[in-house]
Amino acid sequence: MHNERRFSDGARDPVTPGEGHGDPFAAPVPEELRVLVRDCMDDLDELVEVFVAEVGAFEAYRSTVPADDLRETARASLELLLRLVGGLPAPERLREVSERLGRRRVHQGVPLEELLQAVRMDFRVLWTALLERIRPADLPALTRGAVRVWEAVEFHTVHVHTAYLDEVAVLARERERERTVLMGRLLSSDGRDQQLVGQVATALRVDAHADFAVAVAPPAWQRKLREAAAAARAAGAVVHLHDHRGALVLVAELSRDRGGVPPRWLESVPCAVGPVARGLARVSRVLRAAEELAAALDEDVTGAVTLSDGWTGVAAARLDEIGELLTESVLSGLAGISEHERRRLLETVAAYCDSGSITAAARALFCHRNTVLNRLNRFAELTGHHPTRPREAATVLIALECARRAPAA
């Protein structure tokens, strides 16, 4: 269990030393060291100025920490350390000096490395001050107290460090919540609120005028989308994920030299990908298209599907009852033939429409070119729609997709 250290006036220190270690300040303090500590406390202003002169040379401190702030925190820290070294009571105002210092420097933007370097400067300042004030006869007592000085500085340093990291984590969670709220508002908007667009761009650290890829993954595909996003981030891509109406939405800033969708790292991920969003303001509009596309995809999808690839499914879903009538209108002529011939004709039409090539269709179906031509002509004879004519082919494709989606009789 953790041992709780108490200051010598009986008040509890809010920080607990490391597990498995005794209280480093429980040992008796030599009277000579206690006298030296009191002398240093009498000259605390002088020690503060020495510390400020040393740390004031650090770049981060010069640019972000006001001189009055540095003096205030140095005074509190040095007084705390002297009291720990000398076994003196610590007043209430010093109980959380280490934690306050760590949190404060986070908000001032001081890098952790420079903060710890500055905090450890306390040892040099204190040790130098003690050496300057000691009588030669008391030097052995100070030598024995060196460990105590170091333990005090390390105790202070560890808890400054911990508080700094805790505050960084708190701020990161707050920023993530802010990003989530702003992104949710953007995705649910029409993109016309330029202030909101600017806020999202700032929160996501993206260029509001850049191109973006927008992808949607229903629950069954979300794990793979998260994995792809993590790998893309590791490679330097700017990628953001957002849970939106039960689906996982990915928004990725596209580099100017590779602005197409889907990005290469997304191609093998089962998801629906909308057209390129030209600017952050268009992301919500593209998202709505991607959502409709995702709703129209089959469960056995193995890679990213773009709107140009899956438009027939979206169109069929939108047609609803009209789709049933279209199917009946286009395919009713096949009702009088056998199921085997019907299946063979539809298979041939689909193969031809995939490529627009008789040769490619024949290769895919493992049959002769003339066989493909005969089947296409037979389909046209029965339905009145010839798959080799673009306009009629589009009608046939929609009808076939509506038929595929119709519930079994």
UniProtKB/TrEMBL annotation:
Every PucR C-terminal helix-turn-helix domain range: 345-401
Biased composition (Basic and acidic residues): 1-12
Pfam assignment, any one: HTH_30
Highest taxon of source: Bacteria
Region (Disordered) location: 1-27
Stored InterPro entries: CdaR-like_regulators, PucR_C-HTH_dom, PucR_C-HTH_sf, RsbRD_N_dom
Chain ranges of the RsbT co-antagonist protein RsbRD N-terminal domain: 44-179
PANTHER family listed in its UniProt record: CARBOHYDRATE DIACID REGULATOR (PTHR33744), DNA-BINDING TRANSCRIPTIONAL ACTIVATOR ADER (PTHR33744:SF1)
Protein name in UniProt: PucR family transcriptional regulator
